[in-house]
Amino acid sequence: AGWFRRLLHKPKPRSVESSLDSSRSSSSSPSSSSDRSGYSPSTSLVSSVRLSPILVSDINASDSARWAKSYDVCICHSEVDLELVEELVSYLEGQPESFRCFLQLRDAAPGSAMMTELCNAVQNSHCWVMLITPGFLQDPWCKYQMHQALAEAPLANGRTIPVLKDVDRKDYPKELRNLYYIYMALKENSFRQIRDTIMHYLQELCRSSASRME
């Protein structure tokens, strides 16, 4: 009887199903830091940009450093991607910040040399969005404008914003390999990431300008 009572009160082993559940749980937990920092074209490396406390009103103020240049962002793209770029420009210009975008076919001065216009657009913009598509990689003018942007700001500091669409990681321009990129999977999410990145740079620009004035 004593043996039978001890058997009834003996702790039951964990079931196989419970063990499997535990295994699944551990495998779905965050991986090592090296895995998280890996760079894959299937996900965006500019997943979220934390906006600073500086208000939109500060950026839009008449004495803001934002107005030191003619444009907030220059969009570098291939002509075959014009329709997508027009959607992006419409989105950015429709934001509360009313971003000033340079769109070559719309804003270039008629009769001006293309090389001159491209250089002026780069120099007179705070940020440069590089829409890297198969068309971009085949367009010598896109590559020229990319090199001008990198020459203008070799360390980038958030000014150069590569956006990949329908391009494999192996085809990502070597000149931009030191920069994180946005991979355009869902258009709406990518547009928001581009907006947040531009806003982040303008906030840092205003903060830096305010610090110098103090």
Automatic annotation (TrEMBL):
Keyword match Cell membrane: no
The entry's keywords: Receptor
Domain TIR: start-end pairs: 69-198
SUPFAM superfamilies, per database record: Toll/Interleukin receptor TIR domain (SSF52200)
Record keyword Methyltransferase present: no
Region of interest (Disordered), residue spans: 10-41
Single GO BP term: toll-like receptor 4 signaling pathway
One GO cellular component term noted in the UniProt record for this chain: plasma membrane
Name assigned to this protein: Toll/interleukin-1 receptor domain-containing adapter protein
Organism: Phalacrocorax carbo (Great cormorant)
